[in-house]
Structure formats: C-alpha cells, structure tokens
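ESCALATION

Customer reports they have been waiting on this structure for their group meeting. Please prioritize. Original submission:
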Amino acid sequence: MSLCLRPKYLRPNLIGSLFRYSTATTEIAETNDHVLIDDSDAAQAKEAEIERKRNISRLAPSHQNLISGRRPYEEAKSITHLTVKYNRKMYGKYGSASGVNPILCFPTRKDISERLEYEAVAYPYSIKQMMDQAAQKRREEELKIEQRDREVATKHAKLETWKKELNDKIAKKLSEANAAKEKKERLVDEVRRHFGFKLDPRDERFQEMLAKREKEQKKLEKMARKEAREKQMIAKLQQKNVGIGDK
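Update from on-call: job pushed to the front of the queue and completed.
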C-alpha cells in the first residue's frame, strides 16, 4: 500500500522545487541586468596587468599581432612604415583589416608616365626587332662555329705533316749535337796526340791548344762552305748557259 502511494506524495515536492529553481534563476537574471562595469583607470590598469600575466610567451606586441594574423604595428614606428611600398604590402597581406586605403595600391599618373619613359629607354626595340636581332645573332654564332670547325679540320689534316717536321727537327738537332760532341772528342784526341802524353783537359796548355785547334777547324769549315757555294754558282751558270744554247 505504501509503495503505491509514494510517487503521489513525491510529485508535489518535485514540482515545488522546480518552481523555486525557476524563480531563483529569474531573480539572478534580473540582478545581472543591473551590474555596473568599472571603467576607471585603475580597473583598466588591472585588466592590462592581468593580460600581461596571461601572456606567458613574453612576445612583443608586434610579434603577437603577426602570430594572430594582424598588422604588426597599429601606428608607424619608423619612416619606413609611412612609405607607399610598405602600406601596399600591408594591404596585400591583411586586406581591409590593415586600415590602409586601397587607393594607394594603384599607380598614379606620375608613376605610369615614369614607367613608360623607363621602358622606352630600357627597351627601345619592338618584339619583332628583338626577334630579328636574336635570329641574326644566332646566325653569326653558327657561322663562327662552322668556321672554327673548318679550321680544326684543316689543322687536323696537317697534323701528320707537322708531326713529321717536328720529328725531323728533333732528329736534326740530335745529329748536330752528336756531331758537335764527336768533333769535340776528335779535337781533344788531336791535342793529346800533339803533346804526346796524357794531359789533364783542365790544364792551361791543353785549353790553349784546344782553342787553337777549334779556330783552325772553323776556318777549314768556312773555306769548305765557300767552295761549296762557288761550285753551286758555277753549276747554275752552266745550266743557264746550256738553256740559252738550246734556244
């Protein structure tokens, strides 16, 4: 019997508690409507101090703005921040939130005229003229390459001839050196035979006799060359006379 009647006794209590809760909530809301905000300097300083303590990163305000995606400086800190280039950059990065007038992003009449003047001086030729110049330059380079290839081919064809001439020169120098060495040895032997006994080549008498023999040898060689030239001239004259007689 008691089990069946218990919910009936509990229901009024539940409804009463809900009514009291709703009444208390309404009173709290009405009370909150009349809360006053203290905007004095002390309160603002206190709020600023609280915000400073919340900033555990210890970043500068400009760096915090960068991390938060805001313009780093609200006011100009240097003369660079007053330039048109800097303000255009800020508007391009942050848009209207940067506070920059978008008119600054467009070139002025003066800028356009200066740019046109610069392009007229820096790029005086039209596209067609530049293409013709580039084609002419390519043709000249190709001609230079072809000429260089022909020179290389010609020199390569003469390579064997040059090698033979070089080897002949080397052989001639070696033969001349050997002949001079043999001549020197022959003169030394003649000087030794002249004295009839073994003498040190560094001896003064030996050196004097050797110089004398060398002088005599040079004189004989000179006479031999002279006779050879005379014989050659006589042969040419005889050949010339024979040619005249045949005519």
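Sent to customer with the following note: The first helix runs from residue 2 to 32.
Escalation resolved.
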